[in-house]
Amino acid sequence: MLIERPPRLFRWLVPGGIFRMPAGERKVYLTFDDGPIPEMTPWVLDTLDAFGVKATFFMVGDNVRRHPELLREVRRRGHAVGNHTMHHLQGSKSTVASYLRDVMEADELIGSGLFRPPHGWLRPGQRRRLAGEFRLVMYDLVTRDYSRKLTAREVTDNVKRLARPGSIIVFHDSLKSAPRLKEALPAALEWLKSEGYAFGKLDDSKIATI
C-alpha cells in the first residue's frame, strides 16, 4: 500500500508536486513511464486507441534520441508527453547540478512542461530548481506493473482497489513491464470504463516565463 498509493508524508516531501487531479469529475489520468521503445510503445498506443483513451507519456530522453519517430507518433495520436530525465537518473544518487543538466538535456528533445522524477525521488534543491521550469507530476496510484513478484491480475487488482476520481495512474511502456502490462492494461481499461470513469491527459504545454 505504501508503494501503490504514496502516503501523506511522501506527498509532504514534494511540496507543489501534483499527486492527484481535482476529483470533481469521475475521471482518471493514465501515465506511462520509461519509454518510448519500439517493442512496447506502439502496442500501448494501439491499445489506447482501441479503447478511445488519451494518456500522458513520461519519456526518457535517451530513448527519444534513439527513437524520435515514437515521440512524433505519440503526439500525432493526441497524447501528451513529459520529461523523465535523459538517463533515468535517481535524484538521491545525483548532485543538483548533474541532475539538472540531465533533465535539461532531455528537455531539448522532448520539449514538455511536465516532469516526473524516476522512482519519485528528488533532493530538495533539485525540486526547487525544477519547479521553476516544469510542473512536477507525481502519482496517486502506482500499478507496479514492473514487479516480477506480481501477476497481471494483481496489477489489475491494484487499479480496481485504489483508483478514485482524479487519480494519476502509473503504468510503464517498458520491457520490464511487458509480461504483465499486455494483460493488465486492457483489463484495467475495461474495468475503469465499466465503472464510469472518463480519461484525461495532462497539459504538457511549457510554463510561461516572463
Structure description:
There is one protein chain. With 210 residues, the protein is of the alpha/beta class. It has a single domain, classed as TIM Barrel, CATH 3.20.20.370. It has 8 helices and 8 strands; from the N terminus they run αβαβααβαβαββαβαβ. Strands 1, 2, 3, 6, 7 and 8 form a 6-stranded parallel beta sheet that branches. Helix 2 (41-51) packs parallel to helix 8 (178-194), helix 5 packs parallel to helix 6 (124-131) and helix 7 (152-162) runs parallel beside helix 8 (178-194). The longest helix has 17 residues, at 178-194. The model has no long low-confidence stretch (mean pLDDT 95).
Topology:
Blueprint: H1 8-12, E1 27-33, H2 41-51, E2 56-59, H3 61-66, H4 68-76, E3 80-83, H5 96-110, E4 114-115, H6 124-131, E5 135-136, E6 141-142, H7 152-162, E7 168-172, H8 178-194, E8 198-199
Parallel strand pairs: 1-2, 1-7, 1-8, 2-3, 4-5, 6-7
Helix pairs in contact: 2-8, 5-6, 7-8
CATH class: Alpha Beta
What is the chain-wise order of helices and strands? HEHEHHEHEHEEHEHE
Number of continuous helical runs: 8
Q: Helix/strand-derived class?
A: alpha/beta
Main sheet overview: 6 strands, parallel
Q: Which consecutive residue ranges, at least 5 long each, have pLDDT under 50?
A: none
Average pLDDT, to the nearest integer?
Answer: 95
Number of domains: 1
Q: What name does the CATH topology carry?
A: TIM Barrel
Q: Percent helix among the residues?
A: 25-40%
Name the overall outline. globular
Determine Rg (CA atoms, Å): 16 Å
Would you count the extended β strands for me?
A: 8
The separation of the N and C termini measures 42 Å
| Named CATH architecture | Alpha-Beta Barrel
